[in-house]
Amino acid sequence: MILTFLGTSASVPTKERAHTGLALRYNGEYFLFDCGENVQRQMMSTNVSPMKINNIFISHLHGDHILGLGGLLQSMALSNRKKPLKIFGPPKITETVENILKIGYHSISYDIEVVELELKPNKILSVNNSGNGYEIYCYPTNHSVPSLAYIFKELKAPKMDMAKVKNLGIEIGSKLKDLKDGKSVEIETFENGKSVKKTIIPQDVLVKNTEGVSFAYSGDTRPVYAFAMFLKDLNCKVLVHEATFDSSLLENALETMHSTFGEALKISEISEVKQLIITHISARYRSLEAYESEINDYLEKSTLHGKTLKLEIAKDFLEYDLKKLKVIKPKIKDKE
């Protein structure tokens, strides 16, 4: 499971940073979070395939998060896409997509389902195959327009300790399947030459559950502490949070309804994630020195207190392995 940062700038792009776009690769398909201007061209420098995107999640309707949508939808059609596409977003996303499709004589060769979400915590997508799959949640955030964060949580089926299963005399079949499904079963054993019925509960034969990977994407927002607690309850591991400004520019953040690095850091501490990746960096920064200074200060203090939160400043094309919880060296395709 790989996150690919397609664009990491704020409202105005720079030579180094494109408008917002984040792709998640999971089991051969891609999930796209926001689709700023130029996102499809950014994909051409990565392994992200537009034709393998089945779900797009829009955090809010500011241009730097949606202006790449029209071109991407058109390119999918020109590539003879047939698979349906789902687009999730806040109120007015339906009207927005309809207007986009009216521009430029779009001719779409596939079905598009637009899902307009309410501004409340909700599970919006779930795939569960015998305990394996994923869930995606939305959570309302605090920006100058209606906005949502998104959380992806992998589901992992519980594993059986087959040595325990064998010792208990449970045969592979319906009883084992019931245990995997969380049901108790009754078995017959022999003790001192007598037949004895025993009830076996799933915990008797389960290996300690290996939890799946999870990450959250904040979109644009002021810090929302209830959102942090929501992530904590979901045991979220990785948080991608906007930090448009360094902490010295708090007034700017308040005025524009964005977050500072320090505020994103506070959200990550409350949520108890293992990794914070900041993105949506203001175009005013020609150097990341201000952010790097804050990171160094935090790391010095956290070492003294035994904290283990990992920090990263996202750059375009950065890739992050959610299973290994580490940055991968960006794999940028050569441009001819």
Characterise the protein shown here.
This protein has about 325 residues and is of the alpha/beta class. It has 2 domains: about 270 residues, Ribonuclease Z/Hydroxyacylglutathione hydrolase-like (Metallo-beta-lactamase, Chain A), CATH 3.60.15; about 45 residues, no CATH class. The protein has an 8-stranded mixed β-sheet. Strands 7-8-9-12-13-14-15 form a 7-stranded mixed β-sheet, with helices on one face. Strand 14, helix 10 and strand 15 form a beta-alpha-beta unit. Its EC number is 3.1.26.11.
Distance between the termini: 28 Å
Give the CATH topology of the largest domain. Answer: Metallo-beta-lactamase, Chain A
CATH class of the largest domain, anyone?
A: Alpha Beta
**Strand residues, percent:** 25-35%
Quaternary organisation = single chain
Number of domains: 2
Global geometry: globular
| pLDDT < 50 stretches | none
Q: Structural class of the secondary structure composition? A: alpha/beta
Helix content: 25-40%
The fourth-level CATH homologous superfamily of the largest domain is Ribonuclease Z/Hydroxyacylglutathione hydrolase-like
Task: Record the strand order, biggest sheet.
Answer: 6-5-4-3-2-1-16-17
Number of discrete helical segments: 10
Number of strands: 17
Brief digest:
Helix content is 26%, strand content 29%. It has ten helices and 17 strands.
Write the layout of secondary structure elements.
Blueprint: E1 2-7, E2 21-26, E3 29-35, H1 39-43, E4 53-57, H2 63-66, H3 69-78, E5 85-89, H4 93-102, E6 112-116, E7 122-129, E8 132-140, E9 148-155, H5 162-167, H6 174-180, E10 185-191, E11 194-200, E12 214-217, H7 225-233, E13 238-242, H8 250-256, H9 261-271, E14 275-279, H10 289-305, E15 310-313, E16 319-321, E17 326-328
Helix pairs in contact: 7-9
